[in-house]
Each structure stands twice: as C-alpha cells, then as structure tokens.
Amino acid sequence: MVTLLLTLLGLSALYFIVMWSMDIIKNKGVEGEDSNPVVGFFIGLVTDFMDTLGIGSFAPTTLLAKVTGFIKNDRLLPGTLNIGHTVPVLIEAFLFIQSVQVDAVTLLSLIAAAVIGALVGGRIVTKLPEKKIQVTMGFALIITAALMFASKMGWLALLGANNTALHLTGIALIVGIVGNFIFGALMMAGVGLYAPCLAMVSLLGMDPKAAFPIMMGSCAALMAIGSPKFIKEGLYPRKGTIALAIGGVLGVIIGYQFITSLSLSSLMWLIIVVVIITGLDMLRKGLKKAA
Questions:
Q1: Is it the case that residue 202 has pLDDT exceeding 80?
Q2: Residue 4 phi/psi, 5° resolution?
C-alpha cells in the first residue's frame, strides 16, 4: 500500500511539473507582475526548512513576502504559496512516509480526502476578489498563530501524550476523512494544514508522530493536484515562484538533517507574534476595501 501511495505521489509530481513547465515555456518573455528571484530563493530556503520541522511554511512565507515586498498583490498569495512549495513538500512526503510508521489505509484515506478538498477549494479561491483573499488570509493567519501558540505551550502535545495508535477505524476514520477534506479546501486559501491536522490526529487518539506522514503526504498530493488551477489562471509570479521552489528544496534537505537536534523555541515565539500582526494587518486592509 505504501508503494502504491508513493507511486501515486510520483505521478502527481510529474503532472504538476509538466503543467508548471508548460506554463513557464508558454509565457517565456511575457511581461507581467513578478517578484525578486533572489528574495524568493531565501524565503523558500527559510520557510521550507521550518516546514520540514513541522512549523509549516504558509504563514512564515506570507510574513516574509509582506515584509520584503516579495508579493505586491495579495491576490497572488494563495497561488504563490501552493505552487512555490509543492516540490519541496513532495520531497518531504517521500522522506517521512518511508521513515515514520503509520497504517497505510488511514494514511491513504486522509490524503485522498485532502486532495478532493483541495480540488473543490481551488475552484472557489481562484474566483475570489483581492479583498476576500485578504480577509480569508487574515483569519487564516490568526487561526494558524493560535494553533502555533497551542503547540508552543505544549497543549497539542498533551492531547496525544498517551496516544500510541497508528490507525483510525469506524467513526474516528470518518471524522478524520471529513476533517482532512476541510483542511484540504482551506489549503487553497493559504491556510496551512499542519497544525490543524496535528490537533485532529491527536484528538482522535493517534500517536502525534503519525501526523507527519499524514500532514506532508496530504499537502504534497493536494498541492500537486490543486496548484495547476492557479497555474492555468496565471495567479502567481513565475520567476519569483521558481526561485521560491529552488530555495525550498535546499531548505528541506537541510531541515531533514537537523530535525532531531535543532531548538526553535525562540524562533517559534517570534513567528507567532509577527504572524498575528500580519494577519491583523491583512484583515484591516481587506475589511477596509470591503467597507
């Protein structure tokens, strides 16, 4: 079953790369809104390093994109996040699915649910105007910060302190499938899946470690299948996003090497504070435009 899953992920990766490459070749030399590739490379390096350690990459990327001016049009944020981080997250998925034990049926079911959710969510998000994207992202960032705070305080860890299960059955499996479907849909709006998935898996009685292959496998599959919607709509800066992906791949390689030894306590607190500020700022701008 794991071999089948890895094969499906490989096919998803191939589909994404072909779609992305065709769009880049088709629009080669076409002038349009773009972002600084050098800035994108370093943002990818930092955020996917943190992503490999379970912190997530969407909120930090949004933060750094706003601080550095990497993304000037907020409507391009969901596409940039999903397209730019797809290849790095695919690499994470291959690494963790092979190294962390979890029931294959549970893993495959939750990943499939996230992909279907992404396909539904992607069709909605790409039609939203900028002000609605800003409001959605603002709430998403604040929710993400709250979950990161809960994780930092050890509350999410406490949920799974005595959990040893590596599978879900019955009602728990249905709840997990529905939950990951929702998380997959929200992913297309820039809402990171990691923290809510970790909380859900822990609440359902599973070993929190099992969340890593579920989280990363879900994100890898849904991003590879869902991101081409943004590619077709042209809702991303091409050069900047390529650089983001290249830096992200390097970040994953470095992060995987140091995942068991690096302390990120102070960095986590800093990210939580600034993500809240960024989320409130996006809410302010989105609600102001709506008014």
A1: no
A2: -60, -45
